[in-house]
Amino acid sequence: MQELLQLPLQVQATLVAGYIGYALLRRDHRKTEKLVDVWMLILVLGLPTALTIQLWDSPYAYFVIPSGLLIAYLWLTWGEEKWRDFLYKRNLSNTLSLGDVWKTLSSHKKVGALQIKLYHKDGTCYACNNTVDFSGEPFAPFTMDDDGIAFYVTHIAKKDEDWVEEDDVKLADDLGSMVTYFPREDIKLLEMRYVKTA
């Protein structure tokens, strides 16, 4: 860290601009990034800042540092989907996803899961029959990332047994609702019923 602080101010500004853009752009997948990919993204997102500081000899040039964040935002809201669609339609890519099914399910925007059914490796099945029932809770109806999934379990079926409703998931407001977390490595099968939200 000390070495970075000794770099020229222009280089520091470029790295900061690139990093804040990268943090937004890859917010769901930062654990699985390769170091070379991280640095390339930081440099690409910091390039407008570097050019502005180089070409405009003024202290006001440093106000362009948030450009990395703006570029990342524009890419996520407009460019990414259109770019994937373009590659797919030109037969340059066979996928409209992120290349990893789990990543695609965990980070796909404009959809929401209505029902979740999770089969644990021990044979137990956990379900949330209607995630909408938990939309007003402190946490989202379900949270999913590269490590696993957490959701409000409303029904449990042990191996070769019938479904049993969980009565203590949603209690009085002062007691809160119970979220259950499942590490990815403990999941045998995950079924989710999705609907478009936008």
Shape summary: elongated
Largest sheet: 5 strands, antiparallel
Report the portion of residues in β strands.
15-25%
- Please count the helical segments: 5
Domain tally: 2
Mean pLDDT, to the nearest integer, reads 82
* Class computed from helices, strands and strand pairing: alpha+beta
The count of strands amounts to 8
Main sheet strand line-up:
6-5-2-1-8
The radius of gyration is 22 Å
Helical proportion, percent range: 25-40%
End-to-end span in angstroms? Answer: 42 Å
What is the H/E order?
HHHHHEEEEEEEE
Unreliable residue stretches: none
Task: Characterise this structure.
- This protein has a five-stranded antiparallel beta sheet, with no helix packed on it.
- The protein contains five helices and eight strands.
- The longest helix is centred in the middle third of the chain and has 23 residues, at 67-89.
- It folds into two domains: 2-89; 101-196, no CATH class.
- By secondary structure, the chain is of the alpha+beta class.
- The model has no long low-confidence stretch (mean pLDDT 82).
- Helix 2 crosses helix 4.
- The protein starts with a helix and ends with a strand.
- It has helices at residues 2-5, 9-25, 35-55, 67-89, 101-107; strands at residues 111-120, 125-128, 142-145, 148-151, 155-157, 164-165, 180-183, 187-196.
- 36% of the residues lie in helices and 21% in strands.
